[in-house]
Amino acid sequence: MALDGKVAIVTGAGRGLGLAYAQELARRGASVVVNDVDAEATAEAVAAIEASGGRAVAVVAPVGPTETAKELVSTAVERFGRLDILVTNAGVLRDTVLWKMSDDDFDTVINVHLRGTFTTVREAVRHMRQAGEGGRIICVGSPTGQRGTFGQTNYAAAKAGIVGMVRTWALELQRAGITANTVVPVAATTMTATVPYFAAAVRAEANGEPMPAFFRHELGFGTADDAAGLVAFLGSDAAASVTGQVIGVGGDRLQIWTHPEAALTAHREGGWTYDALVQAWPTTFAGAAQSVGERFPKLPEEFEPPTS
User: Fold this and answer.
1) Which terminus has fewer CB within 10 Å in the chain: N or C?
2) Is the Cα torsion angle 120, 125, 131, 133 positive or negative in sign?
3) What residue stretches are annotated with the Ketoreductase domain (predicted)?
4) Residue 26's Cα: distance from chain center in Å?
């Protein structure tokens, strides 16, 4: 088995995408530390993995605090003898527009997504470097962190920050044989269930029906299980040369996101004064200005949500 003898930690693994990642890693032979704040969901996830012949142990704790990161790593090492793979998936949403977003809305999302990723990766890397056998860091991003989404200042900041950290870690960890990558999944989960555009796909998933091809192929929107194969691949020896990447996955689609590059470079002797910019912007620069937000194709009529 591809991950036989490996040990993985998956945060936010009680349900949804995190559960799919944990189950796929276990199917491929890894022993898994299942983390979530929901004790019942965590216990059920561990039981499901064990019922399928896998090995798993639960850690019920919120990510963010350094104490949780230490507990996750120590549990992996004490129960299974090592740590090879970390998947930072835990997350929350507190969506609202900028002028209505409270300090608590912002801080809660940043603490779980951004700080939680930082503290957990830091502790895992400390162990991996000392063990000297390499490792795999797999952090979960979002299209929102790449393109922006209305009403998600906190979430966009956290997910964009994760990508920035991962690119830095890929540089810092290369000599230790530790890879760091970001997965950007698009799937039917509790986070997407309330979006009217995806209603037909989410309904099909909930009813156990095949998801319409429009969503799987055109939008790259699928089930949680559709994203799990990429996580297992990035955790394996087959991906030893893959690091610093942002990889989108969903439905039938896989994407490698570009790293930010200058879209246009222009020079002017003496620099760019206000007057020079007023004159040059419409003809020289405006055509290279970048769009924001995700742009979806028009839904086929049969998938249009009903109007009230």
Assistant:
1) C
2) positive
3) 6-194
4) 19
Residue 269 located in a structural domain: no
Give ∠ CA 66-70-75 in degrees, rounded to 5.
150
What is the distance between the alpha carbons of residues 121 and 275, in angstroms, rounded to a whole number? Answer: 48
Comparing CA positions, the residue from 205, 208, 219 lying closest to residue 17 is 205
Per the CB < 8 A criterion, the answer to whether 249 and 180 are in contact is no
Residue 36 is encoded by which pair of tokens? 């979530």
195 confidence band (pLDDT: 50, 70, 90): confident
| Residue 308 counted as domain residue | no
Domain that holds residue 80: 7-187+223-256
Over residues 148-177, mean pLDDT:
97
DSSP classification of residue 29: T
Q: Considering the domain boundaries, does residue 135 fall inside one? A: yes
Residue 157 lies in a domain: yes
CB 8 within 8 Å of CB 49: no
Point out the least confidently predicted range of 8-12, 93-97, 207-211, 281-285: 207-211
Nearest CA-CA partner of 186 in 177, 175, 195: 195
pLDDT at 189 over 90: no
Q: What share of the chain is helix, strand, coil (3-state, %, to 5)?
A: 50, 15, 35
Token pair recorded at residue 136: 């795999």
* Residue environment code for 42-73, b if the CB has 16+ CB neighbours within 10 A, otherwise e: bebbbebbeeeebebbbbbbbbbeeebbebbb
Task: Please report which confidence band the pLDDT of residue 191 belongs to, taking 50, 70 and 90 as the band edges.
Answer: confident
Q: What angle do CA 238, 10, 223 make, to 5 degrees?
A: 80
- Which CATH number do you get for residue 91? 3.40.50.720
Query: Which band of pLDDT confidence, cut at 50, 70 and 90, is reported for residue 308?
Result: low
Indicate the number of domains in the chain: 1
